[in-house]
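EI: anyone free to look at a 429-residue chain?
SC: sure, send it
EI:
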Amino acid sequence: MRTATAIAFLAVTVANLMSASPASAQQSDFERSPINYLDAPVSDPVAQLADQIQTGETKLTYDQTFGYLPSVLEKLDVPTSSQTLVFSKTSLQLHRISPRHPRALYFNDDVYVGYCQKGDVLEFASTDAKQGAIFYTLKQSPQGEPTFVRDRGNCLSCHASSRTQGVPGYLIRSVFSDSSGRPKLGSGTFLTDHTSEFSQRWGGWYVTGNHGAMRHMGNTICEGDEYTFDRDLGANRLELDEYIQPDDYLSPHSDIVALMVLEHQTQMHNAIAAANYETRQALHQSFQMNELLERPEGHISESAQRRISASADRVLKYLLMVDEFQLTDAVTGSSSFVHDFEAKGIKDSRGRSLRDFDLKTRLFKYPCSYLIYSPAFDALPQQVRDQVVERLTAILDGRESAPEFEHLSPKMRREILEILRDTKPEFSS
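SC: here you go
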């Protein structure tokens, strides 16, 4: 009877998945147990700030020009130097966005803040250690108490798809934008991260900084019906006065290094969240089957173990910057972002940090993501986190030599492992 019940259970599960569209099946997966995305309590940085405001522990100050933006950046410890400017109409307040009035995006390791001139709200995407990306708005009005409103699923139409690795997450898109900021979707778009060709990055964005002979899609628009443009016109710009009024923003920059970090960080966050979700779901389903098949409590099926291992592998590849685009010219930012970012690094006994930049042939000097220190990484279920730590150690000390990690020289591996052993306890043994 137990076996028959288990078979029936599996048949119903398969039938349900086949009858649902891929998008709805994917979304319903994380809206129900064990994830319960919309209902489970969260403690991401924005949620914590909202609690502090509600209890009177802190207050936000309203600025007549920028609303609550300067105050929330200060409270959330988000540096102004992280400002990047996007003029394509690809976000919530698209009617406020144009090449003359781009949307400003600010970020730190865990929070992203979006600001539009004369916008109705500030937009927030905040990383919860267990639940991944959580989305909020804050009304830009001095009337009444400032209140963060959590999105109840509308943002997921764009922020939960294959572009975000199948979980509520983040993405940076590069588009062919017309003179009003509308993306010419018929020409295609690019999802960008640290692996992307330089020539495909930042369409619909402003970019300040030097990058030599390399060319990107930033600072340019598509005229008429053409889907191409002269990339030389937008290259190596240090100022944006030709395009915008700099005084309309907290910073006159849209720093190229900040953009490169943003691309890496968004998909690294997604890889961690995807591993968290996949492991919890695999364990949940395995434990359900244990009861039906009268297997020992806590038994992890072979299929669940394979799912967990695959998740660990994806996290490792992002952590170690596999397939990173190799720079052919040096990159130099236009603001204090490089200094501000590096200053937050956890340093080893020799003063080295995973936040140290290279910017000559690659993004970071030591190609292992600084998000290994993030609350989200630390909150990974033990079954997947242990695998990541064990395999990462084996790769760095030379016991594992898979071809995808050949970009790491013996010297790099040794230095990364030395930094981790000095700065992250689980690597010290």
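EI: Strands lie at 84-86, 103-107, 111-115, 121-128, 132-139, 148-150, 173-175, 189-191, 205-206.
SC: 👍
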